[in-house]
Amino acid sequence: MASTSALKRADSVIDTMPEALRQSRYHMKRCFAKYIEKGRRLMKLHHLMDEMEMVIDDKDERTQLLEGLLGYILCNTKEAAVVPPHVAFAVRPNPGFWEFVKVSSVDLSVEGITATEYLKFKEMTVDEDWAKDGNALELDFEALEFTMPRLTLSSSIGNGVNYISKFLTSRLNKDSESAQPLVDYLLSLNRHGEKLMINETLSKASKLQGSLIVAEAALSALAKETPYESFELRFKEWGFEKGWGATAEIVRETMRSLSEVLQAPDPLNMDKFFSRVPTIFNVVLFSVHGYFGQSNVLGLPDTGGQVVYVLDQVVAMEEELLLRIKQQGLNVKPQILVVTRLIPDAQGTKCNLELEPVINTKHSHILRVPFRTEKGILPQFLQLPNEYCPFFPQSLCCFHLQQDATNKILELMEGKPDLIIGNYTDGNLVASLMASKLGITLGTIAHALEKTKYEDSDINWKKLDPKYHFSCQFTADTIAMNSADFIITSTYQEIAGSQDRPGQYESHSAFTLPRLYRVVSGINVFDPKFNIAAPGADQSVYFPHTEKQKRLTSFHPAIEELLFSKVDNSEHIGYLEDKKKPIIFSMARLDTVKNISGLTEWYGKNKKLRNLVNLVVVAGFFDPSKSKDREEMAEIKKMHLLIEKYQLKGQIRWIAAQTDKHRNSELYRYIADSKGAFVQPALYEAFGLTVIEAMNCGLPTFATNQGGPAEIIIDGVSGFLIDPSNGDESSAKIADFFQQCKEDAEYWNKISAGGLSRIYECYTWKIYANKVLNMGSIYSFWKHLNKDQKQTKQRYLQMLSNLLLRDLVKSVPMPREEAQPLVPKE
Ligand code: UDP
Ligand code: LCN
Question: What pLDDT score does 222 carry?
């Protein structure tokens, strides 16, 4: 029986649902009558289950039904739109796979429907006129890419670059002519007008193949280390230009991989060849919001992990670029510019400086360009939209920023960049506008997309727009993700979620903003543009506590004061009575979602844990009246209440937000010395840089199972996963760990070592930079190969941006403070 139902489960919902309903017809008729009883509405899984429970009160019968196919279908239902007499179901049997069906409550007949039809059902629950308007604006991005290959397995999602190599292999394998686009692409490579790799002598694939054979033979007679210069002239006569490699050995390897590709393409040689092609020297990164600076900014509004990520990314990319350029035998200085906004009223930060070198790089800079409106330059900081600060002028300013930044970038780089990478909605928008204008390869990074953070944020957009401006945000996100040649994510779940929860990108596949537009295919998570490249932590700062000679011991007196002094002041409150106990430590912004107050409560309630360890949290500050954010204010008050309620003084130290990463890293290690642990208890975390910082320091880590950390940590091996919605279970798991450490001193070392090996295997900036530069190289060629289709899509996106987004952003209120008039240039 089990195997039959398993087989059936592999079938589509439309095939299996009629029979499943027929088998429980009596109960189902009553169930559907209940569903439609309240009229039009949207139902989630828990509503469907609760109402089924009301109708089928016999537990055994219910269990039997839920164990069958019907239960399987219902459990995979993400949403149902009730429009009597029908109930339309959106079923997601696997990550990325959606099926839509409508069921009649009258006769239980089932009909498959399209995404468009489902969205109309959904709209009927809030706005019948719009749903029935035959001329409503529909966006369909897949319609423009009907010939582009798509992946088919959920497990392949996020591995795009590997599949692009395979697709390229088959494209170049068709006939004798199919390698010509590769030759044309190589012919187009140049650096400031100076040709690279090949010149017009080798304009045909057959000629190139022949010359490669001759060149390889010549190379085999040379010593491996022979520099390119010593055979450059001879190679030039044969049609070869610089860029193949610095030495005879490297040139030979690169030539061999191209020869293999031209003879019979295979993904391995394709990858190898493209990792060596000199296409990327200058990169522009956009990270627009927050206080983008290198010191004293973390913890300021909108200033968190993204700033850390981008700065570390620059260092790693420059290092990798320098290495590659050296291996290519070129004498070129790579340049990376991080473009952000200039804030004249910089509040003590350096955000009013136009150009600032990036620490630990040789040639990279932060370029700050002011936000401008028609009235002039905006002097003050602008927060991303939230309830307290309902402005989203970022989008409006992005249009201007793109124009103002372009000239500056072209001037500083003495030409166009080779790759543009955006970060988050605002940065991705500017990046996509610029990439489209200059015709440059575009990568985008979201860090976190807002759409999934609020239930039904699409259908209810009108209600939420005054607070959050989702109409602008979702439009900007959809435009940027469609413009991108490749999308970098930190985790799989960011793209396609998990078995139970749709991914952040996946939630853009079909959605509707009634009265504005209906997106019938917004993004396809099976598009090979998606790539997982997880960030790392700066390993010169976050290194294991056991590396004694590197330890920053000069911070110890300050750290000891921070942890153990008995005074309450503006930097810390609470104290630790028993200094010998291990410490459980957490550090995050004091947002509700970070759940620092949750951790405090779990600790307060768990006597065993309190006996075993102390609690130290670094988060926000202590005076709610100083907060401008309603959420933060509530969290501060809650923290004080919990400390009071559970009488935590003597066992808790609450430290205000810290901005010195060197001191923070030593704090992680100091806590590791105490044989403590790091706890990241967030209700949801997109990635979680603190998790990998702690693991890099060798501190055993407990992290939320909701979001990115669930992929970082292998439970029980490289750390532990905890369920933020089950505090008792989570605190018991932490207590058990410390109990076990008491009984077996080696256990702590084992988990600490497990965390470190996981980091070295998957979460380093070196791995990241290598992956991202390979993407830049291979997607540039892919874009070249598909330029006609790319251009068509680009025109469609430009139209949407100009017709839709520009109008939407105009309706967003600007801050009251007047902009400063532009000072005319000398
Ligand atoms: N951080 C910090 N001081 C604080 C809180 C956080 O320096 O008081 C740093 C932390 O070390 C990490 C980043 O800010 O590098 C937070 O990144 P994460 O990805 O954990 O969360 P986000 O704030 O981006 O949501
Ligand atoms: C944003 C977040 O919310 C974090 O989870 C990430 O770690 C950070 O950006 C860096 O990507």
Answer: 98
